[in-house]
Structures are given as structure tokens and as C-alpha cells.
Design goal:
alpha/beta, about 550 residues, five-stranded parallel beta sheet, flat, Isoleucyl-tRNA Synthetase, Domain 1
Length: about 550
């Protein structure tokens, strides 16, 4: 937008005068909009900062949109023409010209959500799901080619345990209602029995080895478990506004694992250790376990095969794994193995913290704290109660309550830096004031109500500049910078905090200044600024996965 254009012009002037590259930043103090220190430039050119400023003052003042430049305490301060900035900001947003076209595009694979089949979708899965989905939207919005993959946990020894449990403790009709809850109960029972009879572990391993060899009975049960699981998962994905380009479980890579292991052998990377095959990774890292002594494969083997497949099939240069903090070592090992194999694949572990309730790890066990369904049901109920108090005549209250409740849960997750633990408190996250999803949604609804009163029309000759209008325009101009920083740091929280800042800045304008007056042209221009603000706020919400509402 216009602010980026002015910043670039200032940087070009400094380069033209001194052949020196410098980055102009947003001013942190005072009334100036832009600033930069001149100390380093002065040192490089062996000139006093005052002399440097004197040579820059005239050409900088000639830049379109700059009203004044000053020098104070070693800093160059740049003041912008308010009417110019506000008009060009509105014009850029209204004509969809608020993103640059010069970014280098990448092919990115994002591996997110990735629940285990035959286990319930939990609060813990929400974090990976909404962080990954937001990053997928962000990368795609900025022009990257993105492949979003739900890497289902549908393979491994645990399925030997599950099949054993079903065949010995289950019956055919037990999966007719709440099948995933029933399967999880069987899994828990297996572990209880295993403590009393350790030989069950060997039986489960034998079943899994038979499953890997294609035993038709075991394959049919495994397929049934998978279909039932996906049905439950899809319910939550629809609720959370999440989708994927591919749903590819670990089992898909079974046929690629032998090739990966053979490649490791051909490159003389594998070492026999206590009858298991490992790859030593150096003194600073434990070795990667590739095959157990019984010949069965492990997570590492499958992740190596998956990474190679994604690199070759999607032409991906970067693979993001949206997985909890505790898996940090695994992904460092994965990167090291791929490096040793000679692949130019960048692995990025997009790590995240725990979900806490009253400072403790939250669980969603039936008969314990809550099932995940109960969490959403309670959120929707509380949301509907709040809406009925605020707007009892609102149409489609159920749908609005659902959008507000889900938006509150998503925003509560994404407003925090991803690596931190988050506190799950429904009553706090559903408040219409403060750092909440409902506050963001309500701000957009407030904007929509204003825009229904009078059509916004842009008048270049109408001056609506004020302290609050200028502050709002400055925030709008920071949208692209925010997205680029969120992309480079894999932090959707930057977008969430930007949406909060934008909402707060707009509400300051709304509270301090009458937006619709008897002056129709000025009112139309002011509403054009409201329109531009709503466009950017709504786009921020869409990137987070939060529904945009017109009424609340």
C-alpha cells in the first residue's frame, strides 16, 4: 500500500545520495510516522549525523506524501501528509491493491492435524488443526503453492493392539453408536490386560506384522476403523472451518519405505545395533532408529519415506510439521537423516504448547472433564445466551451462536504465540470485550451497521484527516508487513494480534468521532475508511478461520 511505497522511496533517496542501504521503520515515539537511526550511516561515511541529515532533507521533502522531515537524537523522523495517506490507503484497499507482487513463490507442504484413527479427536488436536489450517491459508493468500496434508496416524504396532482388543473383547454391534469412543475403550482395556499379561505385547506385534503382510481379516478391520474415524474427524473439521488438499495416512507410505531403507543401505548409512538398524547422527544427537530387530518399521522410517515422496511428488522445498513441542528431537533427527541422504529438503517443526485448564493439562475423557463435543456444545450454549441478552430479535441465532463459539475457540488458540501453553476458559474466551474472538467479530458487525446507513464513496478532495483516522490508516498499511512476518516466523498469532489492534484502533475512532454527519460527502469519505477497515479486518479473520458476520 501507500506506506510501503513511501518507505521504498525514502530508502531509494538515501541510497541515491549515499550509496547506502537502510531500512525505514515505523516510528515508535512522537508524532512522526516513519523513522530510522543515522548513526551507522554516519559512521560508514565518516560524516556527522547532522551533515547526513542536511544532505537528505530536501530530496526527502520532495517525495510525494511526505509533509516534513526532522532530525532528533540521531534519528531521521518522517512526517506524512495525512489526507494523502488516508485517501491512497482507502483507494488501494477498495481496488484490491494492498499486496505486493514481487515475492518469490515457494512450494510448501504443511502437515497438520494428523490424529490417530480409532481414537477420539481431542482438545489437543485443535491446536495442530487450527494453526496448520491458518498457515495454509496464509501461504496461499501470499501466492505460494501449498499442499495441506492430514497425515493420519493409521499404521504401527498400536493397530496390532487395537485389532487384538476388538477380536477378544469386542463384538460386531458395538460400533453402531459412538464407535470411536468404544474403540478407545477397547484400547484402554488392552493396556490394562497387558500389565497383567505381558505376552499380549508379542501377540499385538505379530498381528501388526501380519497386517503389514496384507492379512485380509486384519486389513478389513483396519479399514473399518479408518472409515469410522474419518467420519468423526470430518465433523470437527467442518465445525472448525478446516479442510485439506490431501488426507494421506502413514499406511500410504508403506510401499515407499523399502525403497527408502534400501537407499540408506546403498549410501552406507545404516548400522546394525543390538539387532536393530540405526543411522548414527553425530555426538550431539541420538541415532535414528530405522528398523526394530523384528523387522517392523517406525515413525522415523515412515517420516523419511513421506518426506522423500512429498519432495519428489509435490516438488516441495519446505515441509512444515505442525506438531507439539515434545517432538522437537524427532524433527531434528529427521532433518539430519535427510541431509545425510543428500536431499535438499528443509524441515520446519512448527511447534506448539499444551492446552491447559486451571493450569493443568486439559483432557476430554468421557466421564472426566468433558468430551470435545461437550466443549463445543457448552460454548455454543453460552454464546447463544449472550446473543439473546444483546439482541433477542436476531435472526438465525443458532447459526450465529455457533460461529461466535467456534470463532472464540479458534481465536483463543491463535492469539497466543504457538510455542506457549494456552489456557482454555470458555467464559473468558466468549466475552465480547477484551482480547477475544467475539470482540473481533462484533467490531466487524459494528462496521457493517455503519455501512448500511450510507454508501461509502471515495472523494479525493475531501479531507477527513484526524488523529484517529490517521492512526487507523497507519494500522491498515501494516497489514502486508504483518502477513509477511507471520509467514516467515510461522506465527498466526501475529495476524490475530493485528486483528485486535485494528479493532481497537477502529473502536477508538468510533468512540471519539462522529462518523456520519450532515456533510454527506465527508460522511461518504469517512465510511470509505470504515469500508477499507472492514475489508482488512474480515480478511484477517478469514486467514484465522473465523466466520465473518453481518449481524450479532
Amino acid at each position: 500500500m501507500i506506506l510501503q511505497t513511501i518507505k521504498k522511496h525514502v530508502e531509494n533517496v538515501i541510497f541515491d545520495v549515499f550509496s547506502y542501504s537502510i531500512t525505514i521503520e515505523y516510528a515508535k515515539k512522537g508524532d512522526a510516522q516513519l523513522a530510522c537511526p543515522l548513526f551507522q550511516l554516519s559512521k560508514e561515511k565518516r560524516l556527522s549525523p547532522v551533515v547526513v541529515f542536511n544532505q537528505l532533507e530536501t530530496p526527502l521533502k520532495n517525495i510525494d506524501g511526505v509533509s516534513d522531515v526532522t532530525f532528533e537524537h540521531g534519528f531521521l523522523n518522517i512526517y506524512l501528509n495525512q489526507q494523502h495517506l488516508i485517501y491512497h490507503t482507502i483507494d488501494a484497499i477498495k481496488n484490491n491493491r494492498y499486496l505486493s507482487e514481487n515475492k518469490e513463490k515457494e512450494v510448501i507442504v504443511i502437515d497438520y492435524s494428523s490424529p490417530n484413527i480409532a481414537k477420539r479427536f481431542s482438545v489437543g488436536h485443535i491446536r495442530s488443526t487450527v494453526i496448520g489450517a491458518s498457515l495454509r491459508r496464509l501461504f496461499r493468500f501470499l501466492g505460494d503453492e501449498v499442499e495441506g496434508i492430514n497425515h493420519l496416524g493409521d499404521w504401527g504396532t498400536q493397530f496390532g493392539k487395537m485389532i487384538y482388543a476388538y477380536l477378544h473383547y469386542g463384538d460386531e454391534g458395538m460400533l453402531d453408536e459412538e464407535p470411536i469412543a468404544k474403540l478407545q475403550e477397547l484400547y484402554v482395556r488392552f493396556h490394562d490386560e497387558e500389565k497383567l499379561n505381558p505376552s499380549l505385547s508379542d501377540e499385538a506385534r505379530e498381528i501388526f506384522l501380519e497386517l503389514e503382510k496384507g492379512n485380509p481379516t486384519y486389513l478389513a478391520l483396519w479399514e473399518q476403523f479408518k472409515v469410522l474415524s474419518l467420519k468423526e474427524f470430518d465433523y470437527y473439521y467442518e465445525l472448525l472451518n478446516v479442510d485439506f488438499d490431501h488426507v494421506i495416512g502413514e499406511s500410504f507410505y508403506e510401499s515407499y519405505m523399502n525403497d527408502a531403507v534400501k537407499e540408506m543401505e546403498d549410501k552406507h548409512l545404516l548400522v546394525l545395533d543390538d539387532e536393530a538398524m540405526i543411522i548414527p547422527l553425530g555426538d550431539d544427537m541420538p541415532p535414528a532408529l530405522i528398523k526394530k530387530k523384528d523387522g517392523s518399521t517406525l515413525y522415523m522410517t515412515r517420516d523419511v519415506a513421506a518426506a522423500i515422496y512429498r519432495h519428489k511428488h509435490f516438488k516441495a522445498s519446505t515441509i512444515l510439521y505442525v506438531v507439539g513441542n515434545e517432538q522437537a528431537l524427532h524433527f531434528r533427527q529427521l532433518q539430519r537423516v535427510l541431509d545425510k541422504m543428500g536431499y535438499e529438503i528443509h524441515i520446519e517443526h512448527v511447534n506448539f504448547g499444551l492446552v491447559l485448564q486451571d493450569g493443568k493439562k486439559m483432557s476430554t475423557r468421557k466421564g472426566g472433564v468433558h468430551t470435545l463435543q461437550a466443549v463445543f456444545d457448552e460454548a455454543i450454549l453460552l454464546s447463544k445466551q449472550a446473543i439473546e441478552e444483546k439482541n433477542p430479535n436476531l435472526e438465525h441465532k443458532d447459526q450465529v451462536a455457533k460461529s461466535v463459539a467456534v470463532g472464540a475457540i479458534i481465536f483463543n488458540d491463535l492469539k497466543n504465540e504457538k510455542h506457549l501453553n494456552i489456557e482454555f476458559n470458555l467464559s473468558n474466551m466468549l466475552k465480547f470485550e477484551g482480547q477475544t474472538g467475539p470482540y473481533i467479530q462484533y467490531t466487524s458487525v459494528r462496521m457493517a451497521a455503519l455501512l448500511r446507513q450510507l454508501d461509502p464513496v471515495v472523494h479525493e478532495d475531501v479531507d477527513i484527516s484526524s488523529e484517529h483516522a490517521m492512526a487507523l490508516s497507519m494500522v491498515l498499511n501494516q497489514f502486508e508487513d504483518t502477513l509477511i512476518r507471520a509467514r516467515s516466523s510461522f506465527q498466526p498469532s501475529m495476524i490475530a494480534r493485528y486483528a485486535l489492534n485494528l479493532s481497537q484502533t477502529f473502536n477508538s475512532l468510533y468512540g471519539q468521532q462522529k462518523l456520519i454527519t450532515e456533510d454527506i460527502r465527508k460522511s461518504q469519505m469517512m465510511l470509505s475508511l470504515v469500508y477499507a477497515s472492514r475489508e482488512i479486518l474480515n480478511q484477517s479473520m478469514r486467514l484465522l478461520g473465523i466466520d465473518v458476520l453481518d449481524y450479532m
